[in-house]
Design the sequence.
């Protein structure tokens, strides 16, 4: 499913390209789904993968948390360090001015809280709800990290959610949907209420878990023929890239509840056959590794190199984000993934009785 995750990252970049830099004359729009819906789709994919991966950590919950946190934090530190450095190198830039001003005004316990949240990624989705005002996101080294903070809360709940009965997941999802209905009913502002409230985003993650359970049943009963897998991949890719152009999304270019529901239903049924098709593909996995670095890089590149937003209708920004991601994927992400796999295998080996460990080593040879 790496190709689809890459396309979702591309949707975020192309959707942000016209607006994040404050370019008044940039009026182009891509056929990709909106960045907000792409993030919701990412949450669904994440739920599927966590439901798939967590059983491998049976008895090693701490190892699970360490591995998932390391998946997020190291690349973030690198990109954040570059972003903060650019603030000071170009203090008159459109993004540097508010960041430098507000960061310098964060003193005492509040300043420490801002620093720790920026450094650890914990709580970076929650600052909008403090009574001091709606502008706290301009404290963040990377403006779009609210979704990463939300992802961390999901990870913390994985041991409980993945092992919960399906009916309880449905109940929790229903409660989260009611929260979203309430926000729409009272016409609360999109930022932050309709985008960053954890409990309203949680249903997307739970849909991913439920989709994985659906996959297990389909796979057990051999209901995933090759033609279905390829058809699901092609249709979903077209939907992600041309959904707005071809009016495949019910209400194009809006953050509506209809679109959320449409994406949820489509991905719930599409992910199982697509995963069945791509799970053993090294090329697909490699392409998917670019999605997170692209997501991290694109805002800073767009702000500090404005032509990236203006040329090729945002595709130049996507290209530069891909190029900037290559070193992260090769020198950070891939070595870390090897370390995580070896660390888990070593922990399991050390837990085995001596004879069992010897047999395992002999079998591996």
Sequence:
């Amino acid at each position: 499913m790496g190709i689809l995750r890459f396309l979702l990252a591309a949707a975020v970049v192309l959707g942000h390209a016209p607006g994040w830099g404050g370019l008044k004359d940039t009026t182009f729009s891509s056929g990709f789904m909106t960045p907000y819906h792409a993030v919701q789709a990412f949450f669904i994919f994440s739920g599927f993968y966590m439901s798939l991966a967590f059983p491998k950590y049976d008895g090693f919950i701490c190892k699970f948390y360490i591995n998932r946190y390391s998946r997020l934090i190291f690349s973030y530190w690198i990109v954040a360090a570059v972003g903060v450095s650019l603030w000071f190198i170009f203090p008159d830039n459109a993004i540097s001015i508010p960041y430098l001003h507000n960061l310098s005004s964060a003193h005492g316990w509040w300043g420490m809280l801002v620093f720790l949240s920026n450094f650890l990624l914990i709580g970076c989705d929650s600052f909008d709800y403090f009574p001091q005002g709606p502008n706290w996101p301009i404290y963040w080294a990377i403006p779009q990290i609210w979704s990463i903070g939300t992802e961390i809360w999901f990870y913390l709940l994985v041991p409980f959610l993945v092992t919960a009965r399906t009916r309880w997941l449905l109940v929790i999802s229903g409660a989260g949907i009611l929260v979203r209905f309430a926000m729409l009913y009272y016409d609360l502002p999109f930022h932050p209420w309709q985008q960053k409230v954890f409990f309203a985003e949680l249903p997307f993650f739970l849909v991913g878990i439920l989709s994985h359970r659906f996959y297990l049943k389909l796979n057990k009963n051999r209901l995933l023929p090759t033609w279905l897998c390829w058809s699901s991949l092609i249709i979903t890719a077209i939907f992600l890239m041309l959904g707005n152009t071809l009016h495949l999304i019910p209400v194009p270019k809006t953050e509506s509840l209809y679109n959320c529901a449409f994406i949820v239903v489509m991905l719930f049924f599409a992910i199982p056959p697509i995963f069945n098709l791509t799970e053993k593909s090294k090329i697909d996995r490699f392409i998917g590794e670019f999605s997170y670095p692209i997501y991290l890089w694109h805002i800073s590149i767009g702000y500090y190199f404005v032509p990236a937003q203006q040329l090729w209708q945002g595709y130049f920004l996507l290209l530069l984000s891909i190029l900037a991601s290559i070193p992260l994927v090769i020198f950070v992400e891939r070595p870390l993934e090897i370390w995580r796999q070896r660390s888990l295998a070593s922990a399991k080996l050390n837990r085995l009785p001596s004879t069992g460990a010897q047999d395992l080593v002999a079998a591996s040879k």
